[in-house]
């Protein structure tokens, strides 16, 4: 069955720049050139919240793993962390000296990586929005930065035509991939953490193995690739292009599976939901579209590791016979050793822990908001006292 358009959100007043699902799929976040962040609630009712705060275009949005926070970055050089509720409260910090192009939470929700036109990548703690360190080897705007699934690596892509791989602990650049013929708009890790995909203005998508730093696959398109997203199974990749199409690539077969025409004008951003059932796209036509995946109903049944070494434009020189960790769900038989009861207990424990983590996120965020308000109040008080002093001095003079 082909992917099908499920929902259509209209509310932004300018091009949509970025989209993301919360883990539960109950909410969807989108950023736009209209300086707003919007949170769309998927169910039960289709409510939309418009969050105002940024002074200029919002270029990137990302939900925390718990779904209780949303990070956004803007042309106003700040990053905001929002509580995606009716009040829409946020804390704000001056993150860079240039436009912030990319925000990304680590999978444990503790760190945030941001990338900017000031040519730097910065890493922050989420809980106090404390700056940790900067990575500074790009020589042009940095478009995108992402943590690896295990949080040990960071990958970044830039208008200097390179993709760089960084070690988070040593803060060193481990490798530079220089094979792109243009600006690299987007990069991300495969769910296995073993390979990365990057796309950009040279209309290609390239997949590299990050253990051997070898090119695994190369897809030649005919239009600028603005954004890409891996399916959680790791077997598919979706891209959003300036020719208004979304393309779904089958990484096992190494071929184009579907081309979807939904947007009028460039498709700017795309993201799979955390379970892969849905994906969302945004475009310069101000539309946010939610699609039902459909094509991958049985990916859990594939068990043998796949070779990830085909090259699609007919040049087999780049093919490598490496298993790049294309990753499969356990089949039922592997679980037969554990009782149903044990599994249920584990699931409920995991859910409780996730809930506690989420509540902690909100508490920390609330404390940060209160701290910001206290600072404002103190400043106002100081101002009042100074004014009072002046009035008294004027009277005595």
From TrEMBL:
<dbReference type="GO" id="GO:0060271">
    <property type="term" value="P:cilium assembly"/>
</dbReference>
<feature type="region of interest" description="Disordered">
    <location>
        <begin position="309"/>
        <end position="345"/>
    </location>
</feature>
<feature type="repeat" description="WD">
    <location>
        <begin position="51"/>
        <end position="82"/>
    </location>
</feature>
<feature type="repeat" description="WD">
    <location>
        <begin position="225"/>
        <end position="259"/>
    </location>
</feature>
<protein>
    <recommendedName>
        <fullName>POC1 centriolar protein homolog A</fullName>
    </recommendedName>
</protein>
<dbReference type="GO" id="GO:0036064">
    <property type="term" value="C:ciliary basal body"/>
</dbReference>
<dbReference type="InterPro" id="IPR036322">
    <property type="entry name" value="WD40_repeat_dom_sf"/>
</dbReference>
<feature type="repeat" description="WD">
    <location>
        <begin position="177"/>
        <end position="218"/>
    </location>
</feature>
<dbReference type="GO" id="GO:0005814">
    <property type="term" value="C:centriole"/>
</dbReference>
<keyword id="KW-0853">WD repeat</keyword>
<dbReference type="InterPro" id="IPR001680">
    <property type="entry name" value="WD40_rpt"/>
</dbReference>
<keyword id="KW-0677">Repeat</keyword>
<dbReference type="InterPro" id="IPR019775">
    <property type="entry name" value="WD40_repeat_CS"/>
</dbReference>
<feature type="compositionally biased region" description="Basic and acidic residues">
    <location>
        <begin position="332"/>
        <end position="343"/>
    </location>
</feature>
<comment type="function">
    <text>May play an important role in centriole assembly and/or stability and ciliogenesis.</text>
</comment>
<feature type="repeat" description="WD">
    <location>
        <begin position="260"/>
        <end position="292"/>
    </location>
</feature>
<dbReference type="InterPro" id="IPR050505">
    <property type="entry name" value="WDR55/POC1"/>
</dbReference>
<feature type="repeat" description="WD">
    <location>
        <begin position="93"/>
        <end position="134"/>
    </location>
</feature>
<feature type="repeat" description="WD">
    <location>
        <begin position="9"/>
        <end position="50"/>
    </location>
</feature>
<dbReference type="InterPro" id="IPR015943">
    <property type="entry name" value="WD40/YVTN_repeat-like_dom_sf"/>
</dbReference>
<comment type="similarity">
    <text>Belongs to the WD repeat POC1 family.</text>
</comment>
<dbReference type="Pfam" id="PF00400">
    <property type="entry name" value="WD40"/>
</dbReference>
<keyword id="KW-0175">Coiled coil</keyword>
<dbReference type="InterPro" id="IPR020472">
    <property type="entry name" value="WD40_PAC1"/>
</dbReference>
<dbReference type="GO" id="GO:0007017">
    <property type="term" value="P:microtubule-based process"/>
</dbReference>
<dbReference type="GO" id="GO:0048871">
    <property type="term" value="P:multicellular organismal-level homeostasis"/>
</dbReference>
<feature type="repeat" description="WD">
    <location>
        <begin position="135"/>
        <end position="176"/>
    </location>
</feature>
